[in-house]
Amino acid sequence: MTDPWTPYCAQVVDRVAETPDVVTLSLRFADPDVQSRYRFACGQFNMLYLYGLGEVPISIMDYQDGCLQHTIRAVGRVSRGLTQLQPGASIGLRGPYGNSWPLEEARGRDLLFITAGLGCAPVIAAIRRAIAERDSYRRLVIMQGVKHREDMLWQAQYDRWREVPDCQVLLAASEEKQAPFAWSLGMVTTLIDKACFDPDSATVMMCGPEPMMRASIRALEQKGVAAENCYFSLERNMQCALGLCGHCQMGAPFICKNGPIFRVSDVREWFLLEGY
Amino acid sequence: MPWTILMGNRPLRNRTMDQSRFLPQRDFGQLYHVLRAAGYRVVGAVEEQGALTYRELESVDRMPTGLVDHQAPGRYRLERQDHHRRFDWVGTAQGLKPWLFSAEQPLWVAREVEGGLRFEEVRETPPPTAVIGVRACDLAALALQDRHFLEGDYPDPHYRARRDQLLLVAVNCHRSADTCFCVSTGDGPQVRTGADLVLDELDQGYLISAGSGRGAALLAQLPTRPVRGWHKRRAKALRGRARVQQRALPSRDLRAPLYAAREDMHHWQPVADRCLTCGNCAAVCPSCFCHRVDEEAPLDGSLSRAVRRWDTCFNDEHSYLVGHVVRKSAEHKYRQWLTHKLASWHDQYDRSGCTGCGRCITWCPVGIDIVEEAQRLCDEVGEAERNHD
The FAD-binding FR-type domain covers which part of the protein (chain A) (predicted)? Predict the structure, then answer.
């Protein structure tokens, strides 16, 4: 197929209910040729299509056991329907789209991952890649914020990352009354104070709600991290993922084709203005 | 004749005026017949609901004569005058956009089949189409749409199919409407590139020149005569008349003032107080490209279809994002439209998104004038900077 608009059929191989409204689907293309041609980079996204309802952009969480993994929160009609699918169900899938986290450029530097809520999903593959190539980077700091303790996804995985040499894992809950063991109370930004890193040689990768990323950018600036070394994954109303439909423009950049990952200094003026 | 060997769609640079010919008024129908004989459906401006609109012409007689359009903010009126010129009008309600980027375009069809879903591409074979009467501003807007739809990583096959079948017979404007400002954008009123044939209409007939090999081959089939010196002098004078325009954008690149103005919502309130956020400006804009993708499933459940439709940044849904709307107020919406069209378009496509056709002024129900608004914003930002100094 050469038509960039048309999805391919994919099957749900596995479904894991992570929390009451978050589900991870493992997907495989029905056509083995399509499956074998498919390549993605950490941070890219796919368009997932639910029959009769439409498409939504979902970041690629990871690729394991021959399956693409997408972690989806039930928010709108399509995403709600996707979270209700059971193994064996068929959907449409096209991608991957967008650019990827700057893991190559960040070699030899401290890596900070700052995520909140479901914002961890587009970053998980990058964290796993960094840990798999542990020697390529200096200090690793993994920060994740949630509202409630039970919103935390993949706690066991984060606990395993605590065992990785020179890898700091910091978790925060903003709406708990008491801090769970090895957690902090407050927003993820409070964790930046606890992180051990060299501001001059750190690369930051962020994903989460926009207010959280705005606060993190301010906190990082206060720590002396240059906006040129901070990257974040952004979201707008991506309907085509092809750079054509125009809905995902945030001022000049099209999120789908120029992003979704941006260097903060490249787009900060658009990002900080309400209404773009 | 050397024309016949110049086949293909290669532009003929700098040669168009030198090799122009004269087609007598009474032989204009031959142009229609030559195009039909070459396999084109012929499209031209016809009067419909009080405005001129491009429609397929079943005969050359469908083309109106003696019609003049009067345009002003929020106003379009046709006047019938006592002459037989066919192209004294300046603007159609829509440019070429609907003929390439359809207002409604099926994209693909999904069917539930044994063992999964089957996706079928929608493939169309649009007929070869010749449009007569295209103006310089609309050719410039076509180039902008080409850039958007065809020159990215994912060229749009639906636009491509129609574009490949398009032949353009352009006309140099010999007058400007009150809403025209193509001189200030650098896109008109004279046709420079992008047309297969270019006409200048005189009372006695047409100066006609080729802008491509295809155009030259068609021109060779017309019963033309050599051009006389007075033909050229008359056409030049008429073209000069069209350069007199009341409106002018302050500059071709308005990034500096508009990026300054985007920071302060007070600048946007005066226009937001009048703007109905209806999106008419974007609908008639020949360069606006936004579209949404709708999913349509017939009640019998046999299939589901993805259809794209024109959308505008004045709709709430345009900026929908996980449960909320990024641009809810008229201030935010108008700011999006104007800063995109006149400023961030430069960052995206290396020029402004406006070609000065003035349709957004004419078809705005409350007569908001993009030129006036751009000038006001420049003045306010300049004023603020002077006070700051």
Answer: 5-103
Q: How far does B154 lie from chain A, in Å, by closest CA?
A: 6
**What parts of chain B have a pLDDT lower than 50?**
1-8, 14-17
pLDDT digits (tens, 9 = 90+) for B153-188: 999 999 999 999 999 999 999 999 999 999 999 999
Q: Which residue has the tokens 């929160």?
A: A73
Indicate whether B281 and B164 sit together in one domain. Answer: no
Q: Is residue B112 part of a domain?
A: no
Q: Is any Cβ of chain B less than 8 angstroms from the Cβ of A135?
A: no
Q: Which residues of B151-184 are buried (b: 16+ CB within 10 A; e: fewer)?
A: eeebbbbbbeebbebbbbbbbbbbebbbbbbbbb
Cβ contact (<8 Å) for B154 and A249? Answer: no
pLDDT of residue B209: 97
Q: How many domains is chain B partitioned into structurally?
A: 2
- Confidence check: pLDDT of A2 > 80: no
Task: Report the alpha-carbon distance of residue A213 to residue A62 in Å, rounded.
Answer: 23
**Going by C-beta distance under 8 Å and a sequence separation of 6 or more, which residues neighbour residue B375?**
B249, B250
Do B318 and A237 lie within an 8 Å CB cutoff?
yes
- B121–A1 C-beta distance less than 8 A: yes
Q: Which residue in A146, A142, A178, A145 sits closest to A157, CA to CA?
A: A142
Which of B184, B219, B242 finishes a domain?
B242
Q: How confident is the model at residue A88 (pLDDT cuts 50, 70, 90)?
A: very high
Tell whether A102 is covered by a domain.
no
CA distance A100 to A107: 15
Q: How far is A274 from chain B (nearest CA, A)?
A: 8
**Does residue A240 sit at the B interface (CB-CB below 8 Å)?**
yes
- CATH label of the domain that carries residue A46: 2.40.30.10
Are A96 and A44 in contact by the 8 Å Cβ rule? The answer is: yes
- Closest residue to B152, CB basis, from A76, A243, A249: A243
Q: Does A77 touch chain B (CB under 8 A)?
A: no
For chain B, first and last CA: distance in Å? 67
For residues A110 and A203, is the Cβ–Cβ distance under 8 A? yes
**Is there a single domain that holds both residue A155 and residue A262?**
yes
Q: Mean pLDDT across the stretch A85-102?
A: 97
8 Å CB contact between A93 and A8: yes
Helix (H, G, I), strand (E, B) or coil at A270: helix
Confidence of residue A39 (pLDDT cuts 50, 70, 90): very high
| Residue B115, CA distances (Å) to A37, A48, A213, B36, B112 in order | 21, 18, 43, 49, 8
**Is B322 within 8 Å of chain A by CB?**
yes
Q: Please, which residues have CB within 8 angstroms of residue B44's CB and are 6 or more apart in sequence? A: B54, B55, B57, B62, B63, B131, B132, B133
pLDDT at position B4, please? 36
Any chain B CB within 8 A of the CB of A249?
A: yes
State whether residue B298 sits within 8 Å of chain A by CB: no
Same structural domain, B267 and B210 = no
